Amino acid sequence: MNARRVLYLVSFCALSATAATAFEEPPAAAEARAIASRFQQELGGKLKAAMAEGGPVNAVRICKDEAPAIAARLSRETGWQVRRIGTRVRNPQSGLPDAWEQAQLADFQKRISAGEKPDTLSRFSTVDEPAGPYQRLVAAIPVAPMCLACHGDASAQPEALRAALKADYPHDTATGYKIGELRGAFSLKRAAP
To answer: What digits encode the pLDDT tens for the residues 124-133?
Structure first.
């Protein structure tokens, strides 16, 4: 093999290794994904237990009281602002997506329409905001069978559940979903170092 070909192969391999490194996920993205996963697992466990103990009416309390408490605790423990946002919002005080989140949810919806599985969708970015750069992550929340009790067809909900939802969420628009649809996302944000 001549020297020119060897030099080309060495350069190509070095470039390939550099390109592969450039596409590796930053540590902050992995950290944020792990926090979103903790939130999902903890909330899911509490919802399953509540459903087993008292059905969907009991689960409303978990979403109203426990979910914000889990998000607040994870925020304190990790330094990330942790919350859930919706494509249709049950609680407008805490679940409305901001402009960046809206764009990510719209992108997720396009990707789902193109055949991607919603439970695999997430996006990490460093975003320039008026207060400076922020690291941000959104991880999709697809509608699972358990979700349909409270987020499915409102006309199919028992009267006690509708009363509980109306009492706790008078401006609720988070119904009418079907299994596999995009319900919203876990959203994490912190000032970039």
So the answer is: 999 999 999 9
The pLDDT of residue 24: 78
Residue 17 has pLDDT above 70, yes or no: no
- The tens digit of pLDDT for each residue in 47-58 reads 999 999 999 999
Q: Judge contact between 83 and 72, C-beta under 8 A.
A: no
Angle between helices 159-168 and 27-61 (to 10 degrees): 120
CB contact at 8 A, 105 and 184:
yes
Strand order in the sheet with 81-86: 81-86, 182-191, 132-142, 122-129
Residue 8 identity: Y
- For 182, the enclosing helix (H) or strand (E) is strand 182-191
Q: How many CB atoms lie within 10 A of CB 176?
A: 12
Reported as type and span, the H/E element at residue 4 is helix 3-22
Which of 8, 80, 92 is CA-nearest to residue 38?
A: 80
**Average pLDDT over the chain, rounded to an integer:** 89
The strand pairing partners of 81, in sequence order, are 189
Q: Each residue of 14-24: b (16+ CB within 10 Å) or e?
A: eeeeeeeeeee
* 153 backbone dihedrals φ, ψ, rounded to 5°: -65, 115
pTM equals: 0.85
d(CA 84, CA 39): 10
- Residue 111: predicted pLDDT: 97
